């Protein structure tokens, strides 16, 4: 009997061997059920070994095989590579590929009813309503029809008995419509055509290569990669295409754009899907039937049957970095996955990450440049407002300069967007009487005041309480005061300044769910809002034709702390926000309020000099040996008490292996020093580029014996510092 080496989606260090009984069609990559401990569990056959591998061993039998095409060799290799790279158990990574158990089974079925054309022997009002509903909706379940008609389900039954309706069984999860490559796209400009041609050639040539579409906001990057998708659909009838977007940018607008261009809805994958939607996408991807998948970072771990093209839009976006569980960066992982699959990968951004720019310059990535917006629209003028010279009034946040510009904009009937990346009313609540700063119990995280809901909320842990009437510390009454601005507070200021303006707030608090978001976006598009005050949720993907002024309320807020990418991130976010102005035919302008107008990121924004800014960033990082010129990893330890975690940290550092050029810094409090009652410490490890830092971290961990109360995790290429 051959031997199946099975990996389970569990935190186990290794796969286990099982015997394949006669008559069971087990292949490499098969999804199988096999006994493990007391239960039969789902696993994937990593490889099949010859009969001799089982000789003299008492192996348990594989229990059964799921009716899903085997996981491809490229995917199995990817799972194992990703585990090595991120210093995780392979089973953990496999778990990310198996996010829907329901997808392994065929679609469930349900009974639906359709009209036969017979007339009912007896006509009642209820029956007439139901027949009308069935005419409109087509084949549907009894409850759907009854609900639509506003009658009871027994009416459906009666009509079925009378032969007016006929029951049949139908799959609950329908396949996705097949996209068409041959619908017309935009008529491309010369520059766009050239970029599209390069991608189309690579797609037809097949084989791995990486491209960067480096183009200003609105230059048509999406139109260009649409051409690559069309070419892939056209030249390979089985090719599957994955489009990754930051979760926040996965809006109805972008989905509709795909639908218009390819005549079919793409298969979605993101955290907001229901179980049913999730299993449908998973199943259709695994069977190779979903041709275009559009999803957030975790879609990278879907078990595609034949993945030929990966697009990573807004490749610089911080949300591609997964911080919990297996920590990975979806962009970097995508390049590896494409390599294993022999696929093309296309990164697109107006403000590519320094890592990506360096890869483009060294020729590892092919760079395609789009320098202009098509048609008459042009990039906004960006001006810095030096708050040291012309500050807002006390306890106000808008400078006279910005207020004046808003008044002008309102007077000519155009729209303003104010950007402030802080939800709520005030980011800190302080007692005027005793000076106490309100925090989440057991942590150092400040509570944010939300006036809209009357609550104080921790944006790190989600902890929330109604705003207390008295100070919890000194019991003084009415002494609690919000300090600093959030979007709600800026809205309050705008309301007094521009009493006639129609003002709305756009943040994850006011736009919960697709419905509410669509509402705000539509009102903005149709000119029903004069001033929109938003968090970073507004930065992405929206196109408001009448928006001509963007005001950045606090450009410095992202620059605080010791994050190595703070300047880069600030530049990316603010230039993206500024790019919202003047997208259509009207010229736009952006006013950026800052106390640090000579910071390189601010100067580059004002001069529209991205490359100059990157040059400075690059020199600093090269000098310090930081990514992409060196490697970084973090090890995070946590324990219920600060004393325990400090003691362990000191032991652990003694056990760090020697590595040429490897430096270990710390222990220091982690970015979130206390989380869910656990105290956290962090080591940062830095090495030259040519060192396998994952292997170094794995060797270090192998030496450690940690008490049960202590938890440890590794973050390769960490993104949050402080
Ligand atoms: P980006 O992805 O670079 O931000 P988009 O592809 O979203 O740019 O293009 C911005 C807007 O310009 C979209 O509404 C798009 O349909 C339009 N557009 C881009 N290229 C063309 C073109 N060649 N002809 C007409 N409209 C275009």
Give the secondary structure arrangement, pairings included.
Layout: E1 3-7, E2 16-19, E3 31-36, E4 39-49, E5 64-65, H1 73-86, H2 90-97, E6 109-115, H3 125-137, H4 142-149, H5 154-161, E7 165-171, H6 190-205, E8 209-215, H7 221-235, E9 240-244, H8 252-262, E10 267-269, H9 275-286, E11 292-295, E12 307-313, E13 321-322, E14 328-329, H10 330-341, E15 344-349, H11 354-361, E16 366-370, E17 381-386, H12 400-411, E18 415-419, E19 428-431, E20 448-450, E21 455-457, E22 464-466, E23 480-483, H13 487-497, E24 503-506, H14 513-525, E25 531-534, E26 547-552, H15 566-578, E27 589-594, H16 600-607, H17 610-624, E28 630-639, H18 642-654, E29 663-675, E30 678-688, H19 693-703, E31 711-716
Parallel strand pairs: 8-15, 8-16, 9-11, 9-12, 10-11, 12-15, 17-27, 18-25, 18-26, 24-25, 26-27
Antiparallel strand pairs: 1-2, 1-4, 3-4, 3-5, 6-7, 13-14, 19-23, 20-21, 21-22, 28-30, 28-31, 29-30
What would you note in describing this structure?
By secondary structure, the chain is α/β, with parallel strands linked by helices. It has six domains: 3-98, PriA, 3(prime) DNA-binding domain (GIY-YIG endonuclease, 3-Layer(aba) Sandwich), CATH 3.40.1440; 109-171, Arc Repressor Mutant, subunit A (Orthogonal Bundle); 190-370, P-loop containing nucleotide triphosphate hydrolases (Rossmann fold), CATH 3.40.50.300; 376-422 and 487-625, Rossmann fold; 423-484, no CATH class; 630-716, Alpha-Beta Plaits, CATH 3.30.70. Helix content is 31%, strand content 24%. The protein has a seven-stranded parallel β-sheet, sandwiched between helices. The protein has a six-stranded parallel β-sheet with strand order 17-27-26-18-25-24, with helices on both faces. Strands 2-1-4-3-5 form a five-stranded antiparallel β-sheet. α3 crosses α4 (142-149) and α6 (190-205) packs parallel to α7. The protein is globular. Bound molecules: adenosine-5'-diphosphate. Adenosine-5'-diphosphate binds at residues 186-189, 192, 215, 217-223, 374, 543.
């Amino acid at each position: 009997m051959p031997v199946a080496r099975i990996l389970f989606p569990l935190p186990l260090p290794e796969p286990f061997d099982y015997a394949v009984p006669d008559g069971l069609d087990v292949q490499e990559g098969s999804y199988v059920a096999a006994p493990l401990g007391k239960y039969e569990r789902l696993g994937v056959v990593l490889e099949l070994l010859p009969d001799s591998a089982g000789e003299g061993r008492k192996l348990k039998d594989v229990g059964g095989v799921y009716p899903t095409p085997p996981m491809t060799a490229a995917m199995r290799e990817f799972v194992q590579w990703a585990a090595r790279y991120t210093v995780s158990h392979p089973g953990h990574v496999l778990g990310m590929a198996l996010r829907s158990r329901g997808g392994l089974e065929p679609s469930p079925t349900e009974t639906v009813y359709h009209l036969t054309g017979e007339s009912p022997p007896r006509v009642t009002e209820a029956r007439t309503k139901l027949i009308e509903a069935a005419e409109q909706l087509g084949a549907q379940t009894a409850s759907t029809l009854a609900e639509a008609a506003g009658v009871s389900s027994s009416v459906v039954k009666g009509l079925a008995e009378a032969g007016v309706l006929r029951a049949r069984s139908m799959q609950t999860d329908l396949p996705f419509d097949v996209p068409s490559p041959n619908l017309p796209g935009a008529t491309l400009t010369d520059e766009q055509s050239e970029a599209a041609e390069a991608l189309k050639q690579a797609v037809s040539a097949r084989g791995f290569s990486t491209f960067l579409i480096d183009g200003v906001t609105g230059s048509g990057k999406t139109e260009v990669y649409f051409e690559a998708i069309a070419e892939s659909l056209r030249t390979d009838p089985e090719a599957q295409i994955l489009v990754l977007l930051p979760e926040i940018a996965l809006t109805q607008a972008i989905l509709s754009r795909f639908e218009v261009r390819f005549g079919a809805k793409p298969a979605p994958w993101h955290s907001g899907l229901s179980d049913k939607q999730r299993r449908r996408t998973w199943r259709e991807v695994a069977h190779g039937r979903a041709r275009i998948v559009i999803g957030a970072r975790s879609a990278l771990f879907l078990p595609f049957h034949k993945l030929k093209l990966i697009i990573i839009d807004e490749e610089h976006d911080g949300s591609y970095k997964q911080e919990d569980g297996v920590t990975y960066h979806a962009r970097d992982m995508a390049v590896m996955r494409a390599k294993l699959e022999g696929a093309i990968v296309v990164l697109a951004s107006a403000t590519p990450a320094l890592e990506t720019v360096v890869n483009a310059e060294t020729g590892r990535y092919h760079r395609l440049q789009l320098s202009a917006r098509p048609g008459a629209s042009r990039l906004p003028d960006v001006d810095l407002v030096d708050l040291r010279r012309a500050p807002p009034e006390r306890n106000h946040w808008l400078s006279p300069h910005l207020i004046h510009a808003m008044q002008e904009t309102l007077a000519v009937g155009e729209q303003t967007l104010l950007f402030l990346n802080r939800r709520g009313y005030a980011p800190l609540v302080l007692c005027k009487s005793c000076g106490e700063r309100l925090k989440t119990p057991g942590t150092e995280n400040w509570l944010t005041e939300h006036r809209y809901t009357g609550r104080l909320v921790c944006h790190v842990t989600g902890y929330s309480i109604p705003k207390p009437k008295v100070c919890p510390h000194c019991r003084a009454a009415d002494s609690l005061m919000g300090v600093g601005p959030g979007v709600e507070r800026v809205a309050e200021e705008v309301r007094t300044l521009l009493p006639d303006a129609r003002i709305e707030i756009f943040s994850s608090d006011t736009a919960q769910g697709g419905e509410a978001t669509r509402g705000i976006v539509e009102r903005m598009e149709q000119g029903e809002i004069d001033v929109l005050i938003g968090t970073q949720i507004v930065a992405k993907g929206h196109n408001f034709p009448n928006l001509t002024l963007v005001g950045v309320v606090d450009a410095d807020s992202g620059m605080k702390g010791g994050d190595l990418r703070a300047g880069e991130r600030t530049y990316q976010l603010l230039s993206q926000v500024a790019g919202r102005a003047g997208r259509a035919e009207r010229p736009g302008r952006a006013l950026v309020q800052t106390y640090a107008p000579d910071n390189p990121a601010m100067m580059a924004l004002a001069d529209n000099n991205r490359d100059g800014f990157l040059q400075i960033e690059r020199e600093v990082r090269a000098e310090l040996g930081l990514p992409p010129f060196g490697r970084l990893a973090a090890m995070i330890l946590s324990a219920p008490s600060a004393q325990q975690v400090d003691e362990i940290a000191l032991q652990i550092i003694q056990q760090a292996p020697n590595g040429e050029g490897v430096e270990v810094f710390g222990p220091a409090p982690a970015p979130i020093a206390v989380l869910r009652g656990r105290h956290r410490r962090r080591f940062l490890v830095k090495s030259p580029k040519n060192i396998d830092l994952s292997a170094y971290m794995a060797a270090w961990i192998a030496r450690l014996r940690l008490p049960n109360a202590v938890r440890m995790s590794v973050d390769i290429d960490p993104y949050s510092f402080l």
